[in-house]
Amino acid sequence: MLATVGVASVDDLFADVPSELRLRRPLALAEGMSEQEVFTELAGLAARNVSVEDEISFLGAGMYDTYVPALVDSIISRSEFLTPYTPYQPEVSQGGLQAMFEYQTAISELTGLPVSNASVYEGPSAVAAAGYLAKLHNGRSRFVVSEGVHPHAIESLETLAHGWEMEVERVALDNGATPMPAVDEQVSAVVVAQPNFLGAVERIEPIVEAAHAAGALVICAADPIPLGLLQAPGAQGVDIVVGEGQTLGNRLDYGGPSFGFFAVTESLMRRMPGRIAGRTRDLDGRTGYVLTLQTREQHIRREKATSNICTAQALNALAGIVYLSWLGREGLIELTELLVQRTAYARTRLASIPGVELAHHQPVVREFPVRITGRLDAVLEHCYASGINPGYRLSADELLVAITERRTRADIDRLATAIEEALS
Amino acid sequence: MADPNYPDDLKYHAEHDWARIDGDEATLGITWYAQDTLGEVVFFTPPAVGATLTKDEAYTEVESVKAVSDVVAPLSGEVIEVNGSLGDNPQTINEDPYGEGWLVRIRISNPTEADALMDAAAYVATLP
Amino acid sequence: MSVTTDRRSPWFIAAADDDLTIFDRSRPGRRAFTAPTLDVPERPLDELIPAALRRATPARLPEVSEPEIVRHYNRLSKRNFDLDTGFYPLGSCTMKHNPKLHERIAALPGHARLHPLQRPAAAQGALELMWSLQQALGEISGLPHVSLQPSAGSHGELAGVLLTRAFHEAHGQQRTKVLTPDTAHGTNPATVTMAGYDLVKIGTDAAGNIDVADLREKATDEVACLMLTNPSTLGLFEPQIKEIAQIVHDVGATLYYDGANLNAIMGICRPGDMGFDIVHFNLHKSFTQPHGGGGPGAGPIAVSDRIEPFLPRPQVVRREDGSFDLDHDRPRSIGRLRGFQGNFGVFVRSYAYIRSLGAGGLREASEVAVLNANYLLARLREEGVLEHLPAAYPRLCMHEFVLSGAPMKHELGIRTLDLAKRLLDHGVHPPTVYFPLIVEEALLIEPTETETRETLDRFAAIVADVLREAADDPEIARGAPYSTPVRRLDEAGAARQPVLREQF
Asked: Could you tell me if C153 and C299 are in contact, meaning their C-beta atoms sit under 8 angstroms apart?
């Protein structure tokens, strides 16, 4: 091969690399290993983690121990979905493109907005991306953000807003819900969450009215499963609905990869970030799919692009549409109602323990905070020792408890018993 | 329009825009070369009626499937009419760039600017 | 090579209802899901969620059975070309083999079922893996401080430019401009704007290198950063990189390394040694995360000492007692870019890759990637392809190279797009087309170290065949492809009248 190229050695191929820049030693990394050895080593690392299979976990706060059906694993592990690049050649990418189109339809149905993209990275950065859309749309100087929005999302927005020289004003929750914010003509967008970070179902319509009256957009970060039961934010007038897609058929993976969803009104369509699949026809009149409205994107519009996003989360979004097909129209409602019932049971059960009180009384779907004043350390310690992870610690005295379909009544009773033991 | 065509009654700007001057008003559009380079036009955002155009500055964009092009004002003036039919049929810009594919009409604010524009022969000489 | 104009799909995907969506297959009452048993006392729903907060009508998700779902998506999958099936020389995308071992390891419950808010004491394996990956990426890049958090290359770029902003602000400076070469990926200029800077483009000289004179002129004290890809998107190493770094540092700006092309230089030279301050990696390119048809990826960044205080939080650290932890206490940090700790599942795969190859293997991968690219270029020359598709810059390339289809367009009457579409009929994925923008009718070819000599020889012969065929009858390529599930699609129609979801 070297002779064909016309060089004497591999080293000669790197002639453009100045000799003083050549690394004259091996990288300070261990030498390679066999497949079997690599498996053993990394399985050893995995074994040092306490997963949701190793304890009864009530952790949530943005990602949830949901059940992923076997058919999702089966479909997304197919090479044809796992190993292609972004569908730049639509004639040989119809599978991926059609799946994107189906995914967009499902997201549009859940959010109540007509236009969904094909995915963004994940939930919190999707909120920041929605902020960028709002900035491009109206050029105003401030975001008003409910503290019911996931703290990682608020912080992600703040990180980017600093570069735009925009302010992020936080609105504290009142009894777990977002109070009416003051919105003036400098506000680019009001950001809320549904349900919010403390699990509460928000009353969004009055906030939308106030924001729209001042000409601001409304961004809602939504948990997609409760949207099966709750009013679609888009139907309540929200302009941009984004969210974390992990609970739609994706595993926990210690926080990623999952996907973010992103849906907008028709009038914001041309400011959407990311890929969008569209339906069209081929030369013979057959239905087919392409990436469309690409002039929004970085590879064409460059410094004027609506976002810099390129690689997103196509495979995770595919898991999303497969999962939603598996749940189906009735199944999504049944699942959400199951969560509501079990969560109500857990809420009542924990609130009945002396020393435990509810941190708010808003309606909830799958998550709620409790206050265990002065004794939370002892409770956590005892629960961990009992093989239970009781939830996410919000503060010195508050714990956020998440219920998924994997948490049975027996699990909830065990949690309650462990807390009782710790407090007795 | 399949073949190159540069009508003699128009004035041309180096950024591939044309003006049809009629008294103190002018109709503006993009040239055959511009639409051919872009390919099939899929979207055109008209400026608002009443907007002010400044010669040599971009006043709108036209988009094809895989390109976006600024449209540069050959003359300064105020927009008095936009071609509303392009919203649903942007391909008219390809099909009839000097006729039905016009973009905006303006009231000219500085008539002497027209002196700096090219006639068809001079413009064609600038094309690759 | 026979001319195929019969475009019927293979029998197994050519059923009559091929173009039905999962929604078209929906029938009332069908289902796959059975809810777990309601094992708590049922309360009236109105008591728990007031009716005013609830949907009046259900979301119109499909109503389908499990076998229908499986069949639908399996059949859709057969309408995709993929890396496990054939040659995929998509320039700038580094379509290297995705080892199957990595999927097995990533799926272990200790990885896949670990909650991101698990307390660090109960996530020591994950934190150690992340810490070890940080160490490895730091060594590979020559920049010791690594954050794994960004979700993809473009996200890493955004992190990097925001780090630059924080660095200048810490020195009381408000700089306004960021420089990128005109060969840059679109993500670079888009990132510059998204980080609140103005873009200034730097030209490319006749040899394909950055125009140093132009850089010198535009490098002022208003410049915050130069973003550079090296090797460049033309597949060429910047021989004057030290001088470039000097110019940039002399005006107090930072030098940013777009790691899209890192696959050319692993173990051979290091961005940190070249003078770069900030690097992003594309773990879905150089480090084998499967691309998934458009993600997931991951875009870790590595930085020099002077940038370290500003890295995103939290950082994975090793404490003095040898335990691993998440350090949130980083007062000068730019903050978070996303939720939790990043795309951990991607880190597992990339770390497995680094452990498999080791120091020597990584270097060999880059050497073979560069050898394969140069060999393919030479073979295309031998096949006569370069007569119509000359190399844009006739010199040794790194891991990829650019051809220009401009002569082909004039001499044979087919465009780069036509060549690409005709390649589909030969069972190979086309290279990247129409990028970099500065090369007319560009074709950017990256074979990667994965491919055998036989595959490269075959590809060269196929391209030569397509050109010979075009010399006889250009209409064949202009109408291609013929053998794919659909033929060329009306992209203009899709953009003019967007149909972006199923209509009910």
From this structure: yes
